[in-house]
């Protein structure tokens, strides 16, 4: 297939690009490198089926004509830092909502594919009363500007599907971890322990409990769901993409300490805010149902704890100092 990946130099996007190239798709990456890194594509750039365009998704005049030449769009460009919304909510409005609207408009007015796969997030659910949370849970009441902006993107994609004949696949991702990651609890803890290997401060009360997914499972599930989506006729499909279980922040701290080979580390939990959250807008408990993905034949290879272990090992190898 001929595929365009927005955010293809980012953490998840670059792993997706590697997988698409491995199956001999022709891939065009559009990324402004605001959070993505060219080094994430070091392996991919050697493949003649890859084209890279440095451009902002919000400015289709820089790249929009490329859409006329593709069969499918993976929209993975976004501001990935949930906590940014606490101090700068506009970044989520611009990089998520505006970017998605501009992409959809470029697709609508162009001559290429009207099929889009969108990387959404578990945070669209807010704090659901049902755990594990299924895709048809409602009402969806996000507690962060990040979650709200992603939910808005889902709504816009749905509207284009029903108004302009688009087809959309929405993937609500759990916490994705692994090599090339640039933010999140594992990286935060590693940085703190490298600064002081005898003391570790952990945000929140340590009981935050969420699902974690290794990047290899994430990419495999993305391609699996996409293949199913391409053979169906539904205008919009929504899948939770996660592990089957959860792991606490307290246990993650223990895993990182173990993987770094440290001993006698004094761990202190800050107590957090608003009931023990790490920050305002932090969903304290997250556990997604993945029955819908399992029904079409996919299941994760790693549980949450193993995903964290693998990610810690990979991140430490990538930055050993």
What would you note in describing this structure?
- The protein is α/β, with parallel strands linked by helices.
- The protein folds into two domains: 2-175 and 213-241, NAD(P)-binding Rossmann-like Domain (Rossmann fold, 3-Layer(aba) Sandwich); 177-211 and 245-286 and 302-318, UDP-galactose 4-epimerase, domain 1 (Alpha-Beta Complex).
- The protein has eight helices and 14 strands.
- The protein has helices spanning 11-22, 89-109, 145-164, 185-195, 215-230, 249-259, 291-295, 304-318; strands at residues 2-6, 26-31, 50-54, 72-75, 115-121, 167-173, 175-177, 199-202, 209-210, 212-214, 236-241, 247-248, 266-269, 285-286.
- Strands 3-2-1-4-5-6-11 form a seven-stranded parallel β-sheet, with helices on both faces. A three-stranded mixed β-sheet has the order 12-9-14.
- β5, α3 and β6 (167-173) form a beta-alpha-beta unit.
- It starts with a strand and ends with a helix.
- The mean pLDDT is 95.
Strands of the largest sheet, in order across it?
3-2-1-4-5-6-11
Overall 3D shape: globular
The major β-sheet equals:
7 strands, parallel
Strand content: 15-25%
Oligomerization category of the chains in this entry? single chain
